[in-house]
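no rush on this but wanted to send it before i forget. theres a chain ive been looking at and ive put its sequence and its fold in token form underneath. please have a look and point out which stretches look like helix strand or loop to you. thanks a lot i owe you, the record is right below:
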Amino acid sequence: MLHLSVAIASLGGLLFGYETGVAAGALQQAVGGWGLDRFALLLVSTGTLVGALFGALVSGWLSDRIGRRDVIMATAALFTLGAFSGAVAPSIEVLFVARLIVGVAVGAMSAVGPTYIAEIAPARSRGALVTAFQLAITLGVLLAYGADEFFYDVPGGWRTMLGLGAAPALLLAGAALLLRESPLWLDLQDAQERSGSHGEGTGEASPFSIQGRQALLLCVGLFFFQQFVGINTLLYFAPSIMEGVDFSLGGGLLAGDALPLGIVNVLATICAIGLIDRVGRRPLLLASFIGSAAGLALAGAGLAFSVSEPGPGQAMAAAGVFLFVASFAIGLGPIPWVTAVEICPIRIRGMAIGLVAASHWLFDGIASPISLVGADEPTRAGIFAVYAGIAVTGFFLFRRAFPECKGLALATIDARAAAAAAAMRARGSLFVHYAVTALVTTGGLLNGFNFAITAAAIVLLARDWGLGSFEQGAVVSTLVLGLAVGSFLAGGLADRFGRRYLLMSTAALFVAGAFLSALAPSLIALLVARAAVGLAIGIASPTTGIYVAEISPSAIRGRLLSFEAATYGAGAILAYCVGIWFEATPEGWRYMFAFIAVPSTIYGLLLLPLPESPRWLAMQGRHAAARRVLRQFDERDVDHVLAEMETGQPEEGGGSWRQLASRVNRPIVVLGVTLMFLIVFCGWDMVLFYAPTLLDEIGFEDTTVNFVTTLGLSVVFLVATLISLGIVDQVGRKPLVVSGLVLMSGCLALLSLLHGSAAEPGGVAAWAMVAVLAVFVAVFALTLGQVGEIVVAEIFPQAIRGPGTSLSHGMRSLFAFAFTLTFPFVIDTAGLGLTFLSYAIINILGAAYLFRYMPETRNKTLEDIARYWRER
């Protein structure tokens, strides 16, 4: 009966695989038959993804209420309805709804199917039986590939392909009657009836308890690496990679067919079933990371080699593809699902697994569009190299963090996790600080995207609208002008309405600015729209810094304040990926601007559960609310922290702009404004706003090469920012910023020298300048780019933190406005070499000033820093 139940539940996996696998061929054929473009295909595909995300979230909660078996039966009905509706769809709108229904079923089955199997399986074979569900998924994908091959040239064949999904759905609906309910779920229902509880609200019944969030963090991390190790991109490129390699073996297959990959996927998954309960989860996962990295590296090397030697290069790339698929299928494919159903807390496992499955679909939705980036072999080789680096990172991360659950009963795993959570609770946990900071600093992604997409779009705008240097500068400068206005307003608004509410209000402004920019009929309308986006950034950026500084323990304040720079870097990378995607599209800049509307909406939703700053609440006299928030942050000595907040501002009263000019506060203001001046005129804004223009001046005139190179600089910025997270609270602020200014000065002097000797566009000297520019970006991200923002958020006493931070950021915006408006003229008149030298001199002077006047704020509370200025 056990194996029959597993086989029936695995039918859901077969449907999961078939519906996701058949979509590419069937939907492309449908959209092409209706004469629609690729954006219609993207819309229909998005319907499946949105449905899967919703289905995963709801099914987990529902399975905790009505049981796993009933949800599986309901899912079979949804599969049937979606398959038949898609097969007879008369229009793109009906097909979208049908795929939405199928998506709900796929998402629900992805959460409930593995959960049910894990709860009925004995400990000694649980890994193999849950992996059997993954095998069913791969068989479904293989069937989908076969259907794509068979119906490829059949008129209207896509209808048959979609309708075929109803057959296993009807079989599942009938066979599910034979399933018995999960014994673990029945035991939980009995326990709840005896206690009169429904498992809500307290202790380990919450997915956000220490035990719950540890499990969620591990599982979500696994699914992040599963999706971002490159599986979607590699499978997307696989047919073109293998088009010169014949795998037909007399079977009628065409070169480039994906069917051989599906066969390898199935065989490797069968191997995983045989090994997972013998070798263990951890060794298989680590081997999978290494094999995937090797396959990606081999595929990338083959693509690079194929430029000069097409035959051997393609064979090498094809071998890399097969190695990657086999390595992925043996570990990274099944083990995240096995881990999720093993380590999520028993009392809320349905809800927790639903959240984890939803993260899978979210990451899939983000990672899949990246597969559309890069059309030529060198670009693909570079993308594969990045993915190989991600795989290696995953190996080292999970070598330390992944627990082995082979042969352990679910109750034993749960008891061990509960004991570890209790020990962490006794030591005190900083998880809430990290989680809240991660959520609030997602605004940095919007900031980075909007700045970088402006730099990318300006190239297309200049071409489409024939903009001169003044108009190009105006497009960038209006963004910065709005930024200046928002920055000056932010402090007063944050003190008046609170940090959290002010941040929430900016989300709507981001969305409106995105659509107004995309739909702009004229240059004037575009300037107004970009000013609105700048206003949102100007309000959000300093307010985020104030909020994070006020919730952070002094020991990790620098690290948490660096989060926004990391998300900023991710936003810049996203912008250049979007830029590369739409670069060849007519009026592609409109799509570039519109893209950020969806992340902006998500940003607003992410802010809803966040608490208000406890220091702001205390400043308003709302001590009970401040005490409540401190408890939410797992603060062990609430009374002491609250007393520190109150004594940190003895006679300062309510802050005002007039207080900034007092004798005590003037040196703080000068330091804050100087740091912001240096951030702009160290040369960073040259890269931030004009990187594509700068590369064009160096000699990279091809737009795609230009954008890809700029994307590489953004990756350097992000990597250096992530490194800075680990050192900013160890090395200290002052040594980092002073040494960084000196090193950046050296880079700029070298750039000036190389520019003078560059004789050939795109030659050795030009690439050497790109390398030095990358070093400059890395040094900035490690030092001044982080430390400047951190120190400005730290140095102002509570009473003037709002106006002081606002003034500093406002002045930075004015500096940037002047910079962006004049930079095109400067390089036209003075030349690039002299421009580099002038920034180098500014950096040396700035290093001397900060060495003399900047205090060290590392490991000091905000109240200690305020006391330093008073006693100075």
